[in-house]
Structures are given as structure tokens and as C-alpha cells.
Specification:
It contains 4 helices and no strands. The protein is mainly alpha-helical. The longest helix has 23 residues. The protein is globular. It starts with 14 loop residues before the first helix and ends in a 6-residue tail after the last helix.
């Protein structure tokens, strides 16, 4: 069995990019964990995202980061909703609830796309 990447080792050019890279890694790991019937691994992966989120919150509060598009307050509100879904994922995983874990993961992924649609600049051609 292949070893999983160390999501905590991933970094970006700013706190939000670091959080997003760790988040991508953690969510990929959640898919694998559900498929392998290893739901306890989900909480560990999501914890790495929580640590990065604290740095994002500090950068936003200090004014050293803001989204390239959209308003900061709306971004913060959407981020709170997203992290609530991550908490639901962890709770379902702790309860060994495969269907609940998959549903929470699906809602979180939908919020990823919604956030990117609003706040992430379109890639250059």
C-alpha cells in the first residue's frame, strides 16, 4: 500500500495558499480513507488544515492578505461555512459513519468550487 503524503509539509506563497494546498491533500486523503474503510485517518488529515486556517485568520485580521476578488467579510463567512462542513466530516468519521462522511465530504467539495468561482482569479490562458 502506498504511503500518504505529509499534508502538513505543504506550503504556499502565502497563508491561504498553504491552507489550500494542505486542504487539497487532506480532502484527497479523505476520499482514500473512505474507500479504504479507514475513517479515523480523516480527522488527522483535517487537523492539519485547521492549523493552517489559524494562520490564514491571522493574516486576514492583520490585513496582510485579502482575496484577489470579492470582499473579505464574505470570504470569511464562506470560509466559516466550509470549515463547519469539515467539522461535520470529522464528526461522521469519528462515528464510523461512512454515508455521513461521504455526504459531508461532498458538501465540502461543493463549497470549494463555490469559493473558487467567486474568489479565485481565472487561470491565465
Amino acid at each position: 500500500m502506498a504511503t500518504r503524503p505529509d499534508c502538513a509539509a505543504l506550503t504556499g506563497a502565502n497563508p491561504v495558499q498553504t491552507e489550500m494546498r494542505r486542504l487539497e491533500c487532506a480532502l484527497e486523503g479523505a476520499v482514500v480513507s473512505i474507500g479504504r474503510d479507514d475513517l479515523p485517518a480523516i480527522a488527522k488529515a483535517i487537523h492539519v488544515v485547521h492549523e493552517a486556517r489559524q494562520e490564514t485568520e491571522q493574516a486576514i485580521a492583520a490585513g496582510s492578505w485579502k482575496p484577489a476578488l470579492g470582499e473579505v467579510a464574505a470570504f470569511v463567512a464562506m470560509d466559516a461555512t466550509f470549515h463547519h462542513e469539515l467539522e461535520a466530516l470529522v464528526i461522521a468519521a469519528h462515528a464510523n459513519d461512512h454515508a455521513g462522511s461521504a455526504a459531508a465530504l461532498g458538501r465540502a467539495l461543493a463549497l470549494c468550487q463555490a469559493c473558487h468561482t467567486i474568489y479565485r482569479p481565472a487561470p491565465r490562458p
